[in-house]
Structure to design on (474 residues):
């Protein structure tokens, strides 16, 4: 077969595969990530097919999220394809690199956010013909040392560390429960790294439940179930992320159940992660639910403002010598409160924008460039709610917020309420003034600046404001 004919056949196969992916993924995802893919050369000796994308970012993104789908689709279309390699097109100009001390500008550094769900696990490698046995697939940045702890996640962190130690853990399996972006994927990778340090010759299986399903279906179609089971049960440490996606897959559930029993019988270690408790997994067989919850179920609660602040401060070293003002860190920690991934992603986006445009990082820049993230996270707090909370805190009558009295016991709570109204709501100074008995905007400006200054000099005032912020944002 000539090279031209081979290229035509590959293009025809890709047209069919691309059309199938468009039906599975939808028009928007397909247009953004799948359509730009160009089919490269195919090496018959190694069974490796190259797929190219125009930028490093798009190549990493597609490799992270669609590598398994692409590999399985090509193996079905062409049995001789054993490896699919996703990379940047060699003839395309790459975007300028953002220097973040060894990390790129798109959130792939060490963070409690799972680094965009373990980005890079396959980006630099290939999807081997041995499936998940080709590579451990652990992100090198996701370690225990890079995980910031607080009251919200200390139980899960300590349990994860115990699972990775040389000594046999008191519980197995470990089940990590956390909402999206709170750090469960980070802990899975950290367990893998630490376990490998303690057991250099250990065999580790890390994957998502979706990837487990892809490998299971592939083995089933190719009549390789015996090999699949042998590989799966030969691991010393089993790490499965997003176990909720195995819901409703009866045959895969049964295989996972038998695998868990086999590994536990041999004293192997198992760790699962999901966005809900085992008992909340609808459509999962009762026997499997029993195995998942028989060890330790460790919750990771949403990060409070202290933990969010600590996480941001821990990332600042990556951006040296670029300076990030303290008021920006405080603003991000207070405002982006849905999950840690968005928090760190917001910081990364802000830093990347500042570096690429040559601007200084400022509160104004943060408000301008993070509009989408901020609006999605910002709780709609009203001035009425602020006044009510402040009055309860300082034990003053609600009517004092609008009164003309100038006694210190009344004025200071009123000024704190004005400050909080400016910090927590999008209202302008004149609008805030009207809610406080029709006061002039200059009075509100004076109150805001005074409380800002007092917070820096007076620990008691800073403590009062922090306490009120926690009440209002909870």
């Amino acid at each position: 077969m000539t090279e031209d004919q081979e290229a035509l056949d590959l293009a025809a196969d890709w047209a069919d595969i691309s059309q199938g992916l468009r039906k599975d993924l939808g028009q928007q995802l397909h247009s953004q990530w799948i359509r730009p893919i160009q089919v490269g050369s195919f090496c018959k000796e190694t069974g490796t097919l190259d797929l190219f994308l125009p930028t490093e970012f798009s190549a990493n993104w597609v490799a992270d999220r669609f590598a398994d789908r692409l590999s399985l689709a090509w193996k079905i279309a062409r049995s001789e394809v054993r490896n699919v390699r996703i990379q940047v097109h060699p003839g395309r100009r790459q975007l300028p690199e953002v220097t973040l001390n060894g990390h790129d500008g798109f959130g792939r550094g060490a963070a409690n956010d799972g680094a965009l769900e373990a980005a890079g696990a396959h980006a630099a490698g290939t999807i081997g013909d041995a499936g998940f046995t080709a590579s451990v697939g652990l992100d090198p940045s996701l370690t225990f040392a890079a995980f910031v702890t607080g009251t919200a996640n200390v139980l899960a962190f300590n349990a994860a560390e115990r699972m990775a130690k040389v000594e046999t853990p008191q519980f197995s399996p470990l089940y990590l429960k956390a909402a999206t972006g709170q750090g469960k994927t980070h802990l899975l990778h950290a367990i893998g790294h630490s376990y490998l340090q303690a057991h250099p010759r250990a065999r580790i299986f890390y994957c998502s439940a979706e990837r487990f399903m892809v490998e299971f279906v592939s083995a089933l179609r190719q009549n390789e179930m015996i090999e699949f089971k042998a590989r799966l049960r030969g691991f010393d440490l089993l790490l499965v992320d997003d176990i909720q996606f195995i819901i409703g897959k009866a045959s895969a559930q049964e295989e996972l159940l038998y695998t868990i029993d086999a590994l536990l019988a041999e004293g192997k270690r198992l760790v699962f992660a999901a966005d809900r408790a085992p008992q909340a997994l609808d459509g999962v067989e009762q026997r499997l639910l029993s195995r998942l919850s028989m060890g330790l179920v460790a919750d990771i609660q949403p990060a409070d403002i202290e933990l969010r602040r600590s996480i941001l401060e821990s990332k600042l070293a990556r951006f040296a010598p670029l300076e990030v003002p303290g008021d920006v860190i405080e603003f991000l920690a207070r405002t982006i409160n849905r999950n840690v991934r968005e928090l760190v992603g917001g910081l990364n986006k802000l830093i990347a924008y500042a570096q690429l445009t040559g601007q200084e990082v400022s509160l104004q820049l943060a408000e301008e460039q993070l509009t989408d993230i901020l609006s999605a996270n910002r709780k709609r707090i009203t001035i009425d709610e602020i006044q009510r909370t402040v009055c309860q805190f300082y034990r003053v009558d609600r009517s004092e917020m609008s009164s003309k009295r100038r006694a210190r016991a009344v004025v200071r709570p009123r000024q704190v309420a004005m400050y909080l109204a400016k910090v927590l709501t999008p209202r302008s100074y004149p609008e805030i003034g009207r809610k406080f008995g029709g006061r002039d905007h200059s009075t509100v400006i004076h109150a805001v600046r005074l409380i800002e200054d007092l917070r820096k000099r007076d620990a008691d005032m800073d403590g009062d404001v922090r306490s009120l912020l926690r009440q209002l944002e909870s």
Remarks:
- The mean pLDDT is 81.
- The longest strand covers residues 38-43.
- Strands lie at 38-43, 48-53, 83-88, 174-178, 204-208, 237-241, 269-274, 296-300.
